[in-house]
TrEMBL record:
Residues 60-148 form the Methyltransferase domain. It comes from Siansivirga zeaxanthinifaciens CC-SAMT-1. GO terms for molecular function: methyltransferase activity. One of its GO terms (biological process) is methylation. This is Methyltransferase. SUPFAM superfamilies: S-adenosyl-L-methionine-dependent methyltransferases. Signal peptide: none annotated. Keywords: Methyltransferase, S-adenosyl-L-methionine, Transferase. It comes from the Bacteria.
Length: 231
């Protein structure tokens, strides 16, 4: 990984913002990911993220913290927060913005336990593929204190396969429709392609059942997105 995501966050944070990240997937064209969005404050956050932050309690793990926007809000509310990300640049930015406990770490290498685990901005993306969901959920379950919760958001992206007549062109022989090849470029450089998973609520619920987690639908957004609580 070249960490172009981290480079972009560093540029924005240190006043060198000239362009946005460009993303695309195997089923969608180029799209801009505006860097200011990754530095959003509470009032600019989507409804589902606000709801997740209001539900957070106790000792919190912010997984894939990016620039640390959620961690900073929770810290200000007096919660004890640990923020982790595989991006070196993201962790430098999060620390520099004031996140007190931020570490470069893959979630699969985390061993401490928490009362709340947050995975936000399509939190299921980190699981990469449907076949890996149980592995990640099993691990996340081991990181929960008694009475703890995982707050995770995602979307059912079936609508992306809809044609003009309202029919769907999903290839039933292909992999799960939410498994995307995700491409990112920044300032003309291309990041190594990665897998990114959008998981509909029913499949998340099914995977939770298989690993002994309770899965509750907390809220739905306006565009097939949802927030779930696993406990
Ligand atoms: C879509 S960004 C979300 C950033 C932040 N949560 C936000 O809402 O602004 C996903 C983040 O997850 C991080 N990430 C991806 N895989 C990860 C893993 N296995 N463990 C920890 N972080 C990961 C990426 O580096 C990236 O910063």
């Amino acid at each position: 990984m070249k960490d172009l995501f981290g480079t972009a966050l560093l540029d924005y944070h240190y006043g060198n913002y000239t362009e946005d990240i460009i993303t695309s997937t195997n089923i969608s064209d180029d799209d801009e990911l505006p860097l200011p969005y990754l530095f959003r404050d509470f009032k600019s956050m989507p409804k589902l993220e606000k709801r997740a932050l209001k539900l957070a309690k106790g000792c919190v793990l912010d997984v894939g913290c990016g620039a640390g926007s959620h961690s900073l809000y929770l810290q200000k509310q007096g919660l004890k927060v640990k923020a982790i990300d595989i991006s070196k640049g993201a962790i430098e930015v999060a620390k520099n913005r004031g996140v007190l406990h931020a570490e470069i770490k893959n979630i699969l290498d985390e061993t401490e336990t928490f009362d709340t685990i947050l995975l936000l901005m399509n939190g299921t993306g980190i699981f990469q593929e449907l076949s890996q969901v149980s592995k990640y959920l099993k691990h996340l379950k081991t990181l929960l204190n008694e009475g703890g919760q995982i707050l995770i958001d995602s979307s059912d992206i079936k609508y992306m396969y809809e044609d003009e007549d309202g029919g769907f062109w999903i290839d039933t022989n292909a992999n799960y429709y939410g498994e995307l090849d995700y491409f990112l470029s920044y300032k003309g450089e291309e990041e190594t392609a990665m897998k990114w998973l959008y998981l509909d609520f029913n499949n998340l619920e099914f995977a939770c059942e298989s690993v002994g987690l309770n899965c509750e639908l907390i809220a739905e957004g306006k565009h097939f997105d949802y927030l779930a609580r696993l406990s």
